[in-house]
Write a structure and sequence with these properties.
The structure is a single chain. The termini are far apart. This protein is α+β, with helices and mostly antiparallel strands. A hairpin with a 2-residue loop joins strand 2 (about 40) and strand 3. The chain has a five-stranded mixed sheet. About 30% of the residues lie in helices and about 30% in strands. It has one domain: Trna Endonuclease, Chain: A, domain 1, CATH 3.40.1350.
Length: about 110
């Protein structure tokens, strides 16, 4: 595991989960789906991952947790960040935007959509 100087372990785990999810989504072989885009500027910040389909967009925001009991709260925080930072505001309005907040603790994951 690569830890950057001054970076806490939660940020390191978040980066690892982000890369893991990006790899899974990149392997998805479907001509109706554009490959995922990572860390692109949108709204007032940068989303983790964007996937575009024919009629919809999916924005993923990942959060890592110190404890299993934090999963629900952090998944909600990830979803709230998408809204607060206005991720996807620059996308085509004729497509549905699905916002996905993900929280991870070890091998356990909590997902919230909005």
């Amino acid at each position: 595991m690569v830890v950057y100087e001054g970076e806490n372990k939660i940020k390191t785990y978040e980066r690892i989960y982000h890369i893991f999810l990006l790899g899974i989504l990149s392997a998805y072989d479907d001509t109706r789906c554009h490959y995922p885009i990572s860390n692109r500027e949108s709204g007032d910040g940068r989303y983790d991952i964007l996937v575009e389909r024919l009629n919809s967009y999916f924005i993923f925001e990942c959060k890592a947790c110190d404890k299993e009991s934090e999963l629900d709260k952090e998944a909600s925080n990830a979803l709230a960040q998408i809204n607060k930072m206005r991720y996807g505001v620059d996308l085509q309005k004729d497509k549905q935007l699905v916002k996905i907040g993900l929280a991870f603790y070890k091998k356990i994951c909590k997902v919230k959509c909005g």
